[in-house]
Request: fold
Amino acid sequence: MVANVIKELILRTMVRNQEVYMFTIGKLAKTAGVGVETLRFYQREQLLPIPEPIGKIRYYEDIHVTRIAFIKNAQLAGFTLKEIKQLLEMDASEDHAKARNLALQRLSALEEQINDLKTAQAALQKLAHECQHNRHKPCPIIASFVEDNPKN
Reply:
């Protein structure tokens, strides 16, 4: 009990002196804009380190907020969590060549997705135009989806 009180006093002093912000998991989740279960998932997937508890509570720091921002931004760029874990490992080992190669692979996949989306966009534009100009016939949009589905 005395040891826990001393640890908390040291923590408070350290926080004040070094201006380190400490968060409980709930406050970290709120600050980072994710749910607590998301944080626990990141921890299970070894994307987010688990700090040692001080007393019975684990305190998270600004570095954890930064890590979560990295994960979220990498996801927005289309990286999978597996790839994000690889990027984090590459950063720790300063393996920039592998990180660049992974980014180039992701870029290639994004370009393929963009091409697929452009094809879908053109098809939908054509169908919408046909729908607008052929009002007395069956809707070509609905008909195209029915025709393309395999029959059971």
